[in-house]
Write a structure and sequence with these properties.
about 5% strand
Length: about 325
């Protein structure tokens, strides 16, 4: 991304539905067999409309066809035995045997349906692994077309959905590129941990800076670890001090974080906002004499920045 100021736009993101399992985000075209995790009415591959079904439904269809095939095979065997029978008793036995076997197959299928369904679903996903990947690559091409047309909102929503399956840095970079074009608000369904790159990335820090201002509660332990690891580089960026201060403030939400992120918190103590400084003082008070240098720094900062503040009066 360029260092030039970008024109940011207000947006409302399409809601993403949580699912218990990742495969529940996939749909399959009944006509051409192409998989997709996007929400188009028509298939991106063959263009057919109304042919996309959830993978779970596809697995149930396979299971149903398997049952029908087994029943037809048993019926065919029964009819063959009937045709070859040499007496009335043999004909009756072949028909009764076929009916009994078909009934047993049907009842067993009903009884063990949950197990058979899970096995069928697992087999379907396993054997179609290549097609699923090809479908996701097609979804990426579709999202990139939106990006080329400067439709950053649609592109982001698609890359976000693709990101559930492909959690690599290139997809994260594309999501960050889109997010840099939006005016972020506290009421937005923002993500942070899912965008963590495997190495230092300036664009992630720029996004973290925005998130730290509107949704600091999204800064979790994995993001804190990232800031600790790269804080020397972050400190050199224009937004670095604000990012590190936001990270230190977020670390104070959990008292057990104080010893873990002590270096970060101690570095940023004088830059903490009022509520975080008070929170830090309370945590230090619970550990009398454990962090004397940090305690002294907190008192000095409070005396310098809030000399007449009623909330700090009892400790000054």
């Amino acid at each position: 991304m360029s260092d030039k100021p970008l024109t940011k736009i207000p947006v409302h993101f399409r809601k993403t539905n949580p699912t218990a399992h990742l495969f529940q985000r996939l749909q399959l075209c009944r006509k051409c067999g192409r998989y997709s995790c996007l929400w188009h009415e028509s298939c991106l591959s063959c263009g057919a409309e109304g042919t996309r079904i959830p993978v779970e439904q596809a697995a149930r269809t396979v299971m149903k066809r398997s049952l029908q095939t087994d029943l037809l095979v048993l019926a065919a065997l029964g009819l063959t035995a009937f045709a070859l029978a040499g007496s009335f008793n043999e004909m009756a036995a072949s028909l009764i045997g076929a009916i009994v076997l078909m009934g047993a197959r049907y009842l067993l299928g009903r009884r063990f349906e949950p197990y058979i369904y899970r096995r069928t679903l697992h087999r379907l996903l396993l054997q179609d692994g290549k097609q699923i990947r090809e479908g996701l690559l097609s979804d990426i091409d579709d999202a990139e077309q939106d990006l080329k047309q400067d439709d950053y909102k649609s592109a982001y929503e698609k890359f976000r959905e693709i990101g559930y399956f492909l959690r690599n840095d290139p997809i994260k970079v594309l999501r960050l590129l889109c997010l840099s074009r939006f005016i972020l608000r506290s009421d937005m369904d923002l993500e942070l941990s899912s965008l963590l790159p495997s190495r230092f990335d300036k664009d992630f820090i720029l996004y973290l800076h925005e998130v730290g201002r509107v949704r600091p509660q999204l800064i979790g332990r994995d993001v804190l670890d990232y800031c600790m690891k790269y804080r020397t580089i972050i400190r050199e960026m224009a937004v670095g001090p604000d990012v590190l201060a936001a990270a230190a403030g977020a670390a104070l939400r959990v008292k057990e974080h104080l010893p873990v992120y002590y270096d970060l918190i101690a570095e940023q103590a004088e830059h903490l906002p009022k509520d975080r400084l008070l929170r830090l003082h309370r945590l230090l008070t619970e550990r009398p004499g454990q962090y004397p240098e940090l305690h002294a720094k907190v008192l000095e900062t409070a005396k310098r920045r809030y000399p007449s503040d009623a909330e700090f009066a009892p400790i000054l």
